[in-house]
Specification:
- This protein has 231 residues and is α/β, with parallel strands linked by helices.
- The protein has a single domain, classed as P-loop containing nucleotide triphosphate hydrolases (Rossmann fold, 3-Layer(aba) Sandwich), CATH 3.40.50.300.
- It has a 6-stranded mixed β-sheet, with helices on both faces. A 4-stranded antiparallel β-sheet has the order 2-1-4-5, covered by helices on one side.
- Strand 1 and strand 2 form a beta hairpin.
- Helix 3 crosses helix 4 and helix 3 runs parallel beside helix 5.
- It is globular, with a radius of gyration of 18 Å.
- Bound molecules: adenosine-5'-diphosphate (2 copies).
- One adenosine-5'-diphosphate binds next to helix 1.
């Protein structure tokens, strides 16, 4: 599904620059469920932002389903992102002037789906995430955990081919976190490829492969021996 070749990313730091991704080589097959781990500041979010086609300041080659992302302009990358990806942001990134229902509906607005079907999908998703009562509220009226749920609902409502999740359960109770991981497993079994960043061993157990990033380098890439058997 994805090939990253020699991906490098740096940020300006004073007169110089600091490198946050170094010569990343990564192949992701359709249907994988990958966990990215590593210390804070290692480059995990930066790598996720590249994969999600949200960042266009990197060097190297990125192939997405045989398409050369590195030759695309910003608009073309955004189009691929809308068509194929869903992203759960660590700090939610909900749109403040849209209601919960409108935030969740957003990915559907990029697709060719009828109004009535969209309404049904939003209603289903609100129900599934147990936030029907919050649908007309704005993000600022929600707790952090509730905002996180809305962010996850928005990322999965269109059943993306590629789901990226940055600490998706960081603000949830352990029972909620488990429900979200069960949902991810279900999506994965239905064909969604997943890449999650997490510090949680419990969440990592759902993945089939672990990648470790340290100081911008990929320092480990192994099958997950602790993977929970599908129940
Ligand atoms: P992680 O997700 O592993 O905690 P990040 O990818 O968020 O790491 O960050 C990697 C490094 O890049 C950190 O040192 C961080 O401070 C730096 N960084 C991330 N985003 C920016 C930015 N927009 N501008 C400058 N430095 C950044
Ligand atoms: P998220 O992980 O959801 O993107 P964060 O709160 O980690 O949210 O980061 C918010 C934004 O700040 C991101 O766009 C990230 O690239 C940027 N950022 C992170 N670290 C730094 C840094 N050291 N300097 C400047 N910007 C940063």
């Amino acid at each position: 599904m994805i090939q990253l070749r020699n991906i490098e990313r740096s940020y300006k730091a004073g007169v110089g620059q600091t490198w946050v991704l170094r010569r990343i080589q990564l192949d992701i097959r359709e249907g994988e469920f990958i966990t990215i781990m590593g210390p804070s500041g290692a480059g995990k979010s930066s790598l996720l932002n590249v994969l999600a086609l949200l960042d266009d300041q990197w060097l190297g080659e990125y192939w997405f389903r045989e398409q050369a992302v590195h030759t695309m302009n910003r608009k073309q990358r955004a189009e691929v992102a809308k068509q194929y990806t869903g992203m759960v942001f660590q700090s939610y990134h909900l749109l403040d002037d849209l209601t919960v229902a409108e935030n969740i509906d957003l990915p559907l607005s990029y697709k060719n789906i009828s109004r009535s079907e969209r309404q049904a999908m939003v209603a289903d998703t609100l129900d599934r995430f147990n936030i029907v009562g919050k649908k007309d509220l704005f993000p600022s009226q929600l707790s952090g955990g509730q905002q996180q749920l809305v962010g996850i609902a928005r990322a999965v409502i269109h059943k993306p081919a590629l789901l990226l999740a940055d600490e998706p359960t960081g603000n949830l109770h352990s029972t909620q976190a488990k429900e979200i991981m069960e949902l991810f497993r279900e999506l994965n079994q239905q064909g969604t490829t997943i890449v999650q960043v997490t510090h949680s061993e419990a969440n990592a157990a759902y993945g089939s492969r672990v990648i470790e990033v340290r100081d911008g380098w990929m320092t480990r890439d192994t099958a997950n021996p602790d993977m929970e058997m599908t129940k």
